[in-house]
Write a structure and sequence with these properties.
51% of the residues lie in helices and 7% in strands. It has helices spanning 9-19, 27-46, 51-61, 80-92, 107-121, 126-154, 158-174, 179-190, 203-224, 240-243, 250-254, 263-266, 281-294, 324-327, 331-341, 351-354, 357-362, 409-422, 429-436, 444-451, and strands spanning 69-71, 76-78, 301-308, 366-370, 380-386, 393-396. The relative contact order is 0.14. The protein is built from 20 helices and six strands. By secondary structure, it is α+β, with helices and mostly antiparallel strands. A hairpin with a 4-residue loop joins β1 (69-71) and β2. α5 (107-121) packs parallel to α7 and α6 (126-154) runs antiparallel to α7 (158-174). It starts with 8 loop residues before the first helix and ends with a helix. A four-stranded mixed beta sheet has the order 4-3-5-6, covered by helices on one side.
């Protein structure tokens, strides 16, 4: 007697979006979607004048098509794929966008540029956007929990390499695609999924985030029109889990797909306090605390030791950065800037700031390394050796801005205001916040018509 074949991972995922109703959203789901939208758009506004953003916008404007989605805070409307590409680049180039720990990456920039463009162009409500966002977040976290540790360590940039699939599923939910169409959208998304950590510290990292949204839209709209793909593209013998991962069992995580607590509630969002790689943030928190508590300045420090949990520094590939973009992936620069300036801000990543002689000389005094114990829980220990023989030390386990220590709504609005100033944008961050927190009563197109034109 033949045993029944277990449905493929794509089929199991496809069963979830159609069963998730916008009516199931709680007030907290809407609130956190609004917070993610505020943070993502504000960071894109801050990044709108970066060279990578300007090049992406110029490229997008040259691509013809119906202009039906906003290029955030530029006054331009673009074809929806081009809008997702540009908004993804601008929203990620400063590396100031939110993260979630299971992904080892940035969920909102993977999901929102595609979802907002689709929602604008198809007349969707803010509530429908939120439902799709919750669906995408569920998929991105479940996939990441199954395979991200080795996948990321191997060199994949998990934001697009996992996020493209999740964004396609979320977009399919937004447009109410059928189960079969969602399976096809997953396969088409996988045909475009990529992203390497070798591009960290360059414009191409932000392109990978922008391409994630553009590829997801392409997958959704092709699947909607009947374009097909393999139901085994995720977990078949020649599928994603065999090629991009190490053949881990995706089904073990899918057993809990859509069940309470949702990943949106359990894993949550971590809104960044500093505009650089999240792997530096515990060290920065500790250094700034020690600097204030002991009245220290850079010239009083003889040596700095930073030790993190295993794989805690994997993205930090520039011990001697020479540009602002490289500095965003450098523990050495994070340490030196925090000690010299007493802060790490958007202005810290101008090329001239990174090239300051006292900063460059100090790199040799920093020992940054990983512990060889477990990869979790995550922690960082900071030890300073002063010229007068003191050794102040701090163990940091909780991040300011993390899901268990979140930025307040007012703190988020203050961050958004700083982003608007940095981006030289005349709009109002509070207007953005007011509109986002009214998501359940507005059409997505109305929000961006008010804010980003």
């Amino acid at each position: 007697m033949k045993t029944a074949r277990v449905p493929s991972a794509s089929i199991r995922i496809a069963d979830f979006p159609s069963s998730f109703s916008a009516d199931a959203l709680s007030a907290e789901h809407l609130r956190h979607t609004a917070r993610a939208l505020i943070d993502t758009v504000a960071v894109a506004v801050a990044g709108r004048n970066e060279p990578a953003s300007l090049i992406a916008l110029d490229y997008a404007r040259e691509h013809g098509g119906t202009h039906i989605a906003s290029a955030w805070a530029t006054g331009s409307v673009l074809p929806i794929e081009a809008a997702a590409l540009y908004n993804g680049v601008a929203g990620h180039v400063l590396d100031f966008d939110d993260v979630t720990s299971p992904l080892r990456g940035h969920p909102s920039i993977a999901l929102l540029p595609a979802l907002v463009a689709l929602a604008e162009s198809h007349g969707k409500s803010g509530k429908e956007l939120a439902a799709a966002f919750v669906v995408g977040f569920e998929v991105i976290c479940k996939m990441a929990k199954a395979m991200v540790a080795d996948h990321y360590a191997k060199g994949w940039h998990s934001t697009p390499s996992i996020g493209t699939v999740a964004a396609a599923v979320a977009g399919a939910r937004l447009l109410n695609l059928s189960r079969e169409q969602i399976v096809n959208a997953i396969a088409i998304a996988l045909a475009q999924t990529a992203g390497t950590r070798a591009n960290f510290g360059t414009m191409a990292k932000s392109f990978q985030a922008g391409q994630c949204g553009a590829a997801a839209i392409r997958a959704v709209l092709l699947a909607q029109r009947g374009f097909t793909g393999s139901a085994d593209a995720l977990d078949g013998p020649y599928g994603y889990m065999a090629l991009y991962a190490n053949g881990e069992d995706l089904h073990a995580q899918l057993d809990g797909l859509g069940q309470a607590p949702l990943e949106f509630d359990a894993s949550g969002f971590e809104i960044k306090k500093y505009p650089l790689c999240y792997a530096t943030h515990r060290a920065i928190d500790g250094l700034l605390d020690l600097r204030a508590e002991h009245g220290l300045t850079l010239d009083q420090i003889e040596r700095v030791e930073i030790i993190s949990n295993f794989r805690g520094m994997v993205p930090l590939i520039y011990p001697c950065p020479q540009t602002g973009l490289e500095g965003k992936f450098s523990m050495h620069y994070a340490v030196a800037a925090a000690l010299l300036d007493g802060h790490v801000k958007l202005s810290s990543f101008e090329n001239a700031a990174v090239l300051r002689p006292e900063i460059q000389r100090f790199f040799a005094k920093i020992d940054a390394r990983e512990d060889q114990g477990p990869a979790s829980p995550r922690w960082t220990r900071v030890t300073l050796q002063t010229r007068d023989g003191r050794r102040p030390e701090k163990m940091v386990t909780t991040l300011r801005g993390a899901a268990n220590c979140p930025l307040s709504d007012e703190g988020l609005i203050e961050k958004a205001e700083d982003c608007f100033v940095h981006g030289k944008y005349g709009g109002s961050a509070r207007t953005l916040a007011d509109a986002a927190f009214s998501l359940d009563r507005l059409q997505v197109a109305d929000i961006f018509r008010r804010l980003c034109t």
